[in-house]
Amino acid sequence: MSAYDRTESRFRHTVHVKSQDAFTLRPEQLTIAHGALTGRRVLMLEPVTTFFRFMDLPPELRQMVYDLLLTEEDDVGISTYKIESEPRKLCRDSFRTRYRTEKIKWVQLKEVAASDPPSSLSSLLLLSKQVQQEAGTSFYANNTFRFESLTDMKFFLESIKDFRRFLRYIRLCVDGYTSTKARDTFQLLKDATSLRSFVVHHDTLCESRPRGRGYHRTSPEGFAKDCTELFNALHQALTAREDNIKRVTDILQIVEGHQQHRKCRHCEDSTSSHPLTCSQTHRCHINCDEVASHHDNLVADVKRLIMEALGIKE
């Protein structure tokens, strides 16, 4: 029912119109001239036809949109979760952090996942096969994917299927390293022939680090043996195309991880009465002044072993 507006001296009624398609209201009033509704005034919805389709943009512009929307500044941490009677699913690390922070019970996880709004990536991938291919290529090629479990990494590589060939940046920081899991995972990673950076933590490869329950590590020899087929595939891909990467082992980056170029508590405080010596307090059981050379030697050993396994001379 309209209400009289004393300020404007006219009747006013606000109408909210909803439609699946974009429209504008024609400003002029239309009056029905014939039929049972003669004399009635109507509102006319004018379809909007001035827009353009996203797919009508040139491929270069579409690619710019994908890159801006899907490229993240930080690593994309990948994990998995399993609900009883449900198949295992991929998720971001932030999803698992959320249920821990909000103290969500596992039995509620399914409802939480279902109620979450879709991400930009999942929304794009559902539009069409062409958009799925274009957006997926940008997402997997431009982001660094971080894994804290070989099981999660293997599940991820299996799930993305043909998109494996677009992966360029992988970071692996695991304590539960086993050769069986590593070989199965690296076998799938062979499809990532565009790989430009494969980061592994020093802690995973160092034999000097103490071993404990659930903290399985490998050795430079073991790691080189596990990833020989992977680097052989990458070497063939580099040879087949012109690339600024000179050697295939340049793709491998071994970072210090928890080990930093910092002094232990004993060496920081020269007046300390701490009974332990420097080498006993350091994570790799070495003196603080040997940390840099210890790490450099580990990197050199791993890369040398890979080159020897491939039969490539320096």
Automatic annotation (TrEMBL):
Name the Pfam families on file: DUF7730
**What's the protein name?**
DUF7730 domain-containing protein
Which top-level group of life is the source organism from? Eukaryota
Per UniProt, residues of the DUF7730 domain are: 54-164
InterPro entries, sorted: AN11006-like (IPR038883), DUF7730 (IPR056632)
